[in-house]
Specification:
mainly alpha, Multidrug-efflux Transporter Regulator, Chain: A, Domain 2, 3 strands
C-alpha cells in the first residue's frame, strides 16, 4: 500500500473503511486501492449503477466520497461474492434503495429471509390446493 494509506486513521470508523485516512474526497487511484478494483472497472460501474456517482472536477477528475466507496464495495460484493449479474445487482440495489447502508455480508441474510418468506407463502398456497 502507499504511504498515504499506512497513516493512522482519524475518527472511529469500522468495517472496510476503518484502515484508511478519513477525508472528504478520494481520487480514483485511492478508491481503486481501497476496493481492490481497477480504475476502468470503477468507471464502467459508474455507467451501470446510478448509486456510484462520484463528483467530477472541471478537468474531469473523479472525486469519490465515502458513500461512493461503500457503494462500490457493495456492488463488488454482489457481483463477485454473491455472483449476481450486473442486471440482477442493479435491480437488487434499486429495490433496496440504499446500497451504502447494507454491507455485502448483510445482503445474504436479507436475501435468505425474503426467500424464506416466499417459500412459506408458496407452501400455504400448495396446502390449499386440492390434490390432482
Amino acid at each position: 500500500m502507499t504511504a498515504s494509506f499506512e497513516r493512522e486513521k482519524k475518527g472511529d470508523a469500522t468495517g472496510p473503511l476503518a484502515n484508511i485516512p478519513r477525508k472528504l474526497y478520494y481520487k480514483i487511484g485511492e478508491v481503486s486501492e481501497i476496493t481492490r478494483l481497477t480504475a476502468h472497472v470503477l468507471r464502467y460501474w459508474e455507467k451501470e449503477f446510478p448509486q456510484l456517482n462520484p463528483k467530477k472536477t472541471a478537468s474531469g477528475h473523479r472525486l469519490y466520497r465515502e458513500k461512493d466507496i461503500q457503494a462500490a464495495l457493495t456492488i463488488k460484493g454482489l457481483l463477485y461474492d454473491k455472483k449476481f449479474t450486473i442486471k440482477g445487482a442493479r435491480g437488487f440495489l434499486q429495490h433496496n434503495n440504499n446500497p451504502a447502508a447494507a454491507a455485502p455480508a448483510a445482503l445474504q441474510g436479507e436475501w435468505v429471509g425474503r426467500l424464506h418468506e416466499r417459500l412459506v407463502q408458496l407452501g400455504e398456497i400448495l396446502k390449499r390446493r386440492p390434490p390432482f
